[in-house]
Predict the structure.
Amino acid sequence: MPESTRYSTGVRKMTRCAGIRIVVLAVGGLFATLGVYCFFTSFVMFAALKGWAKAHLLDMEVDVSQPGEFSGQFIPKCPIAIYYRLLLVLPPSLSDRSESEDLLEGLEAHLSVTDSHGSELPKLMERPVQLALMMHSKTISLGGIPHRLPEETYTLRLTVSKGAKALSGTQQRLILKYALGS
């Protein structure tokens, strides 16, 4: 076999191997870049998720021990919220020594949420407030809004027609939070 043919065959084999290596390295680099991008995106989304889990859409001082009306505005911004929870937050000492039924005994109240046009939202997940049984350390669940809301200004109104005497003289806060899971 002439030397020039041997040389050109060897060059072709080297060129082919180099081409395959370049393609393999390019595909590997693409996957590595995609992996790094996904890692950083998941890190950013996890930080946002933690922020939404801690966020209070509405946080106001109330007194449900006597008749009155309490209202506040909120703007939902979390695109992954499943629903919104309304919580009554009490001092730790009070919630440790009493059950939620005892604390809310005699309470009669109505919860309403209106949008920026003044229309009341239908289908509020309102438990009769006097029967709220869910006690979590210092909070009592009062119900919530069972669906995701478009981003606009809403007004939440809690009207107490008959107060819970057991809560007289205690600090109380009404909080609306995102519910991100079941």
Remarks:
- The first helix runs from residue 3 to 54.
- The two ends are 76 Å apart (CA to CA).
- The CA atoms of residues 58 and 174 lie 8 Å apart.
